[in-house]
Here is the input.
Amino acid sequence: MYVGKKVTRVDAYDKVIGRTKYTDDLCDKSAYIARVVHSTIAHGRVVSIDTSEAEKIPGVVKVFTCFDLKEKHYFPTAGHPWSTDPGHQDVADRLVLTEEVRFYGDDIAAVVAEDEVSAAQAVRAVKVEYEEYPFVLDVQEAMKDGAPQIHEEYPNNILKHTSIRKGNYEEAIKEPGLTKIEGWYDTPTVQHCHIENFICYAEMEGDRITVVASTQIPHIVRRVVGQALGIAWGKVRIIKPYIGGGFGNKQDILYEPLCAWLCMQLGGHLVKLDVPREDTFVSNRVRHAIRSHIISWVRPDGTYAARKLEAYSDQGAYASHGHSIAAKGAGAFPQLYPCDNVEADAYTVFTNKSVAGAMRGYGIPQAMWAVECHTEDVAAKLHIDPVEFRRKNLMPVGYIDAFSKNELYDDTFNQCLDKAMETIDYKRKFKEYQNQTGDIRRGIGVAVFWYNTAVWPISLETSSCRMVLNQDGSLQVQLGETEIGQGADTAYTQMTADVLGVPLEDVHVVSCQDTDVTPFGTGAYASRQTYTAGFSIRQTALLLKERILKYAHELTRMPPYNLDIADGSIVRTTDGRKLMTLGELSTEALYSLTNSQHLSAESTAQIKSNAYSFGCTIAEVEVDIPMCKVKLIDIVNAHDAGTLINPALAEAQVHGGMSMGIGYGMSERLIFDKKTGRALNNNLLDYKLSTFMDHPRLKAVFAENTEPTSAFGTKALGEPPACSVAPAIRNAVYQATGVGVNDAPVNPHNLFRRFTEEGLI
Amino acid sequence: MYDIKALYEAESIEHAVKLLAEHPEAQIIAGGSDVLVQMREGKRAGKELVSIYGLDEMRGVSFEADGAIRIGSLTSFSHITRDPIIKEHINVLGEAVDMVGGPQIRNIGTIGGNTCNGVTSADSASTLHAWDAVVELTGPNGVRRIPIHDFYIRAGVVDLRPGELQTAIIIPKASYEGYKGHYIKYAMRNAMDIATTGCSVNVKLSSDKMVMEDVRIAYGVAGPVPMRAPQAEEAAKGKTVSGGNVKAFAETVLKDINPRDSWRASKEFRQHIAVVLAERALRESIRLAGGVIDE
Here is the structure.
């Protein structure tokens, strides 16, 4: 059996020696180079664009502007499965190039040149005349009457507002003896910072167009490119090679439609669009900054009488994933710490800033920042131990969510807290760090998180798989679920080998998705790849096995129910005798003069379940108060992701998420100039992505409770590791200093302000 | 792909001077870790370059006849950090340049480039200011030497005349003998960052280690160019080694420095940090010099 073992990644060797081919490696050198010209105002209208100087530059092929767009096909960009119900379709508010400018960095023109240098020169030479409108950058300012309107159809810039009502909040707060705790919690705009910037190239063959793209969601990209160009979806072919990370940014349609459009304007000539890092920050997608207001009414015994949440989610200029993010966070609020009387309101609001989309955690890191900072504040106010307070109020075993039908089957929270506390020696340190004085103090902090797996029942969950047996008994496996660095291909290999009974090395997962040949699947998001692919892998492998055994029956005359496949051989189950190898069987099957068969199987699994995936972080810090600096000394994440398919990959997945959480909690923030709306730090020097030197040794521990809804007992682990890190760090600083920083990140600027306010410096 | 109009490779210092005279618009390139980044940003796009990177005569650390330490301008940061002369006599410089960027930048980046770039945040610059370094410039009219303080004219502009290149940085014997120093780089992360504020302090103690005979302090990012804090230095000179005197010294720096308010950091924050850094860097310098501060 391979599931549960630390087998080596199937792509490790090629990646380490540099042989793996990414989009740029695959693109022919004859490609024209496209560069996008971005707006230099935050809100307004393009009046004219003078391309004459740019087009004089040697090597420039052509400059296309928003005025060259003869047919306006508005398209949505969210990497969601399409909904056949128009009421549930994503907002179609983008054009490949736009006259209406809604943020500083909007796409108004594109240069196509023979090489990068002339393309860059041409971008600088394009002259644009604008009519400027007032703009708004703050999410709550944008909601006010009279604020600049960013999209006509959305009054007060509110894309969507949803409410959750449970019990009677107003009545419940009248209960005598309650303590009211209230706080505002803010999270910053951050960017994914995957190593490989978004890149794609397009070329035509006949009347069809092929786009090779660094994406997480090839089959969704096909549909949207079709929508954006106004052509039949079947005329679009998307190929997804290995990609250098995505983290949700590439769960959006980025420049595939523009690149395809440019290619079509140039008679189908090969065009490459490679986004510079600076543009990636501004003109791809960012994480929604969410401002949350929480009020809790707590009884003297430490139980909640009533709770209220208001969340304001900064959408930026276009809808992208829209309200899904804020709604997910608000949905977690009444579940994580159940309370009889809850009011939750989530608003997603347009501003004239970079567009927010999906990013690892999808609203939960923001929600956990607010909820877990607040939980700490409540425990402190009531003088209750923060861990005990959480244990008392967290979702109990047996809890069932009425909407998703998710059930908490195991004592996950307590198990994770216990494991994390033991790993980091929490109890001793927590006691030791109470009531410190002096310039340098230590603290230890906890935060838990809520997460779930996949998107059912909000959206379609489907996975298709094809298995094809080769002459020698080895097989290819194809899936729509994509390898984006997380190790999906390796997990699929392990699963297939186990269900089919073949050696690991005989399973070849085809890593590249090509929408012309790969079975349909919606791609990598919602921490769903291992969970959803598991169903179709198991179903398809069983189907193939049935066909193999049927053929084995013809060759051996043994009844199929007395046959099995083990270790790559056909085995008689009655006595365990190996009758033939799978290789012998497949050679015979393919070359038989009497009964030639190509043994293969293909099937689709629709998944109508979802699974909770919970855990926690404990962080230990040393705070240098005069220096306004936090040093992260030790950190552990504990997860219940069900059965681990590959414990080494699981650990690596957690490490990556923790690293992202460390940046979120301590240093990262995209800053916009209040005077112009321009992003000020859109480069990897000024945007403080944390480095190896900012990390202690990262520790990951697991409570492996087999998930009963799952084909392999597994559930979400892609996004959960990024969800509770930041508030745990904040709570550790709180223990060390008594100062709560409610605006992430806990960086020197915010610490200086807070320490000054609290009189520590 | 870089937008370079032409690249001329110098074969000697003399040849470099000749090339610069022939191509007055050309930009000197050494390791390229600043110039190429600026070209990519479009700031120096389309320029001619004169590369001096192959001039080994400008590499290495040595003593001059009078005991001054001579650092060839093309010496890389990583070589400076590991150089035995630097380690023995002015270890703080090796420590300071070991905080530049990451390992790759420290292997390609040179101390000459770091100073000729003229930015206030350069990790070498505050230490060189604090040690009264002298810059050697070679041009059509021969060699001239000027104090590093005079070399910096304003943000991004240094006193490099037409046809000139910086060939060495010299630390006079009187500047280093008997001094011990410490540099603190205050940045937002522990690697791959530029200084929010950098502070380099050194001290010369009396033979009984009780008196601060001389104290020098220089900052990066406390003004448009690296700068000394003369009033703070005066406040500490000749004073006994004590916590109170160190604190008084640190607080005096606010009379000298003029950090700006920007989105990178507020003025108040930079001022606060400047004082904390001054105190800590002097304390560490005193400790390195063998002094003891009684609390």
In short: The first helix of chain B runs from residue 13 to 22.
